[in-house]
Design a protein that fits this description.
mainly alpha
Length: about 80
């Protein structure tokens, strides 16, 4: 999204959509996503390495510790 106001509007739209879902179905969907998140497949290792070994990951950690906004470079 292009700016913070668009992001907020989109988040509100999604919150309204999720808020209108059947509670049991929503709970089951969230649990299924949580369970899948804990499963690491061998073919996913490259994605983890790409992300956690990136300059952006390091920048994110440094920015968090310095309490500043990160300067993402896409690297």
């Amino acid at each position: 999204l292009e700016d913070e106001s668009a992001l907020l509007a989109r988040a509100q739209d999604l919150a309204q959509l999720v808020g209108g879902m059947a509670p049991l179905t929503l709970r089951a969907t969230k649990e299924a996503m949580r369970r899948n998140a804990t499963l690491l497949r061998a073919e996913d290792a490259d994605l983890i390495e790409m992300t956690y070994m990136s300059r952006d990951f390091r920048e994110g950690m440094e920015a968090f510790l310095a309490k500043r906004k990160p300067d993402w470079q896409g690297r």
